[in-house]
Amino acid sequence: MKEVIFHGRGGQGAVAGADILADAAMREGKYSQSFPTFGPERRGAPVMAFTRIDDKPIRVRCQIYEPDYVIVLDSTIGQFQNLTAGLKPDGSVIINTPLTAEKVLEEKIVAKGKIYPIDASSIAMKIIGSPVLNTVILGAFSAATGEVKLKSLIEAVSSRFSETVAQKNNAAMEEAYNVVKGRRN
Amino acid sequence: MKNRKLLSGNKAIAEAVRLSEVNVVSAYPITPQTSIVEYLSEYIARGELNAQFVQAESEFGVMSACIGASSVGARVFTATCSQGLALMHELNYVAAGLRLPIVMAVTNRQLSQPLGMWCDHSDAMGERDSGWMQIYVETCQEAFDTVIQAFKLSESREVLLPTMVCLDGFILSHTSEPVEVLDQEQVRDFLPAYKPDADYHTLLDVKKPLAAGGGCPPAFTMEFDYKKYDAQEKGREMLRKVDEEFGETFGRRYGLVEAYRCEDADAILVAMGTMVGTAKDVADELRSQKGWRVGVLKLRSYRPFPKEEVLKAACGSKAVAVVSRAISYGIGAPVFSDIATAMSNASKKPVLLNCIAGMGGRDVDKKSLAAVFEKAIKAGETGKAENEVEWVGLNRNLVGG
Amino acid sequence: MSKPYWTKENFPITPNIRNPAGSLAFKCGQWRSVRPVIDEKKCTKCGLCVLYCPDDAVVKNEKDVMEIRYDYCKGCGICENECPVKAIKMIVEVQQK
Question: Where in A37-177 does DSSP place strands (E)?
């Protein structure tokens, strides 16, 4: 089973992001589960969302304490929270930032893990025209971890949004995917 | 699984209600039930569900509308929790007393004070004496399946009692997972239309006029109460039957309880709702890592209480830890009391632990449940529980002790 | 209830009242100790006695006259109290044998 924690601020799409990831995994024949934490509901409040993916039915339902992956939609949250608390020793962090992986660790934005930075905000503004970057960062996630295929994410996004919205999101998602994939090679 | 959709617990419930072809939905919004009714009103507005949506000024109005609608033979659904369920309280007894087969989803949420919107079972516990049946579900698929089973159960002639389908607020209502959504044809075959008869049911029919809800002198009240009691006894058997039939038709059966690895268990954890899933994972880990013989007993049917199944699954073990998301102040957890009552005359009974966990949405994590298993194993060895009531995951830095 | 109203075979599941207008069968006028009498000459047919009677025992009959239905009137005296022209008087009940 793989466990993913999404860190974001209310309004950035962390909750929908967790859902889209679970949807994509389901389309690949896997079992999945996604849910948010619930606190004061306002734009800007730190929000965590969780996704679990497994090849067999998932029975556990408590919050995720030892994630395999952490997805950070807003790096400023790192000032108040330990974004990588409980991250497994070989865990990865996919983080929305214009900085490099080395800089991210140097500036202590996150404390540990294999860092995959992606300037999702810029890609989102450029291709989607809005700062909601959940789909973009999922593209980076797919390239970084291989846990879900880009194709599955595209299907999940298309089933969820209107044609024009889905098309822009899918394009941005693919761009982020290519950026991260390109870097790895 | 064919035709899987990623649905939240609330959406799964709404889909099942749509496929059950209800005639009337009346509801008032309350977190975290709100999206159930939002989906249903969308289905009605789009013509996907041919039902009447009755707005009311409060949950009291809602249950009044449900009672009225059910009394004219409509298949009725509503949803609420917490303060809303409490507001319906006096009418819940009326609905059960008039023997109306209303189905209500309860997204279990704490009752004020303290004020909060998070999960615990306090709300439904307050209705456990009312005559409503209560089924606690563990997964979104089970939520979907149980709504359909509930209508069939409630509407059966020998039962005719309303049913609450209880799902953990937020923890299940707002968790999305793959759910197989059945076909309309399949559901219609399993659950035909509700056809009450004017000579037996509470049915307002201008051709056979009656006044429902009459006053009753002491000479007869106990007999009417007995009939309600007897109906729930029959409900126990009917739920077994409906669930079995569902299993044969759709390939999924849940039982009144699920006894997970209890056959050879020295310690068994009893729970309801989502906590059960986490407990099963913990049980597996403890068995393989520590060699402890532990099991989990899921109570699915809470009312009617599955005495037989509980005794069969649990009396053979050395210790049983009942973990509840509710407390009856002055004694301990209600579910604990029910289990202890069921076992009171058993010739061989385990040591019982009265554990409170997850109140007000406190996350019930694997560590906490492992600690409960540990206490149970120890109690089984020593023959007694360490504490009268065990508060799991309590912050002793704040309250001492 | 002096004789069995129900048997095991027909005891219903809930106390719904299946005989409509059952109260008409109970002639509670026998409980009276005083009875109202309407002076037709004073009566203005305003209908207030009809509205105020808690038992629906005062009706306007086919001849357009206010009539007390003595089978059901319990002698509470509200009609006498409410009549604006004092056309109703409560008198001591004379038992009909």
Answer: 46-54, 69-72, 92-96, 114-118
Q: Could you give the domains of chain C?
A: 38-92 (3.30.70.20)
CB contact under 8 A, B275 and A19: no
Q: Which of B252, B296, B292 lies closest to B276 in space, CA to CA?
A: B296
What is the DSSP annotation of C10-78?
T--SS--B-STTGGGG--GGGG-SEEEEE-TTT-----HHHHH-TTS-EEE-TTS-EEE-TTT-----H
Q: Give yes or no for a contact between C32 and C73, defined as CB atoms under 8 angstroms apart.
A: yes
Q: Is C13–B227 a contact, with Cβ atoms under 8 angstroms apart?
A: yes
pLDDT tens, residue order, chain A (185 aa): 999 999 998 888 999 999 999 999 999 999 999 999 876 566 677 889 999 999 999 999 999 999 999 999 999 988 888 999 999 999 999 999 999 999 999 988 899 999 999 999 999 999 999 989 999 999 999 999 999 999 999 999 999 999 999 999 999 999 999 999 998 65
Least confident span in A20-34, B3-17, C13-27: C13-27
Report B:104-163 residues touching A (Cβ under 8 A): 117-118
Cα angle value B119/B124/B128 (rounded, 5°): 155
Q: Which residue of B has its CA nearest to C15?
A: B214
C-alpha A69, offset from chain centre: 9
Q: Are β-strands B4-8 and B24-26 bridged in parallel, bridged antiparallel, or unpaired?
A: unpaired
Q: Which CATH number fits domain B258-399: 3.20.10.10, 3.40.50.920, 3.40.190.10, 3.90.1150.30?
A: 3.40.50.920
Domain locations along chain B: 4-250, 258-399
> What is the largest distance, in Å, between two alpha-carbon atoms of chain C?
57
Intrachain domains B4-250 and B258-399 with the same fold = yes
Helices (H), B298-364: 307-314, 334-343
Q: Write phi, then psi, for B392 (nearest 5 degrees).
A: -80, 125
Torsion region of B186: left, alpha or beta (phi above 0 gives left; psi -120 to 50 gives alpha) = alpha
Distance CA A9, CA A44 (A): 5
Band the pLDDT of B12: cuts 50, 70, 90. very high
Our CA-based measurement puts residue B303 at a distance from the nearest CA of chain A, in whole angstroms, of 24
CA gap A115, A97 in Å, rounded: 11
Q: Which chain B residue shows the shortest CA-CA distance from C23?
A: B211
Nearest CA distance, A62 vs chain B (angstrom): 5
Phi, psi dihedral angles at B385 (to 5 degrees): -80, 145
- Residue in B315, B381, B386 with CA at minimum distance from that of residue B344: B315
SS3 A43: coil
The structure tokens 């409503």 sit at B132
The arithmetic mean of pLDDT across residues B154-168, rounded, is 98
| Sign for the pseudo-dihedral over CA of B347, B348, B354, B358 | negative
Q: Which residue has the tokens 């070989």?
A: A90
In eight-state DSSP terms, residue A124 is I
